Amino acid sequence: MPSAASLMSHPALACAALLTASNLFMTFAWYGHLKHLQAKPWWIAALVAWFIALFEYLLQVPANRIGYTALTLAQLKIMQEVITLAVFVPFAMLYMDQPLKLDFLWAGLCLLGAVYFIFRA
């Protein structure tokens, strides 16, 4: 397993790792209340989501600062979207018990196109 020092020597990789962790928090903040807090008032769900989102931002802000040393703003955004889909699909299937849909594949292919156009030289 790479050490934190070796991870930090590759800003794009460090950014991707932090954004992945950030996205786990973001996804739970945005959608976790739909499974566990349906019977509660919306404002309780909002407070819980804001608390979870704090941890998202504690990872996301440094991730973008680190990533911006090696990537353009557009590359950061596309990286974030790819990671978001990569985190969301397993979350939807495993945690929210949603079925796997072919649309997830099509969305992923569209993102691959975005990756190509944003990262090409």
Model description:
This protein is mostly helical and 121 residues long. The chain has one domain. The protein has five helices and no strands. The protein has helices at 4-8, 11-36, 42-67, 73-95, 102-119. α2 runs antiparallel to α3, α2 (11-36) packs parallel to α4 and α4 packs antiparallel against α5 (102-119). The protein is globular and about 50 Å long. It starts with a helix and ends with a helix. The model has no long low-confidence stretch (mean pLDDT 92).
The run of helices and strands is HHHHH
* Rough outline: globular
- How many DSSP-defined strands? 0
How far is the first residue's CA from the last residue's CA?
31 Å
Radius of gyration, in Å, reads 16 Å
Beta strand % = under 5%
Task: State the major sheet.
Answer: none
Structural class: mainly alpha
By DSSP (H or I, 4+ residues per run), the number of helices equals 5
List the domain count as a whole number: 1
Helix content: over 70%
> Which blocks of ≥5 consecutive residues have pLDDT under 50?
none
Average pLDDT works out at 92
Report the oligomer.
single chain
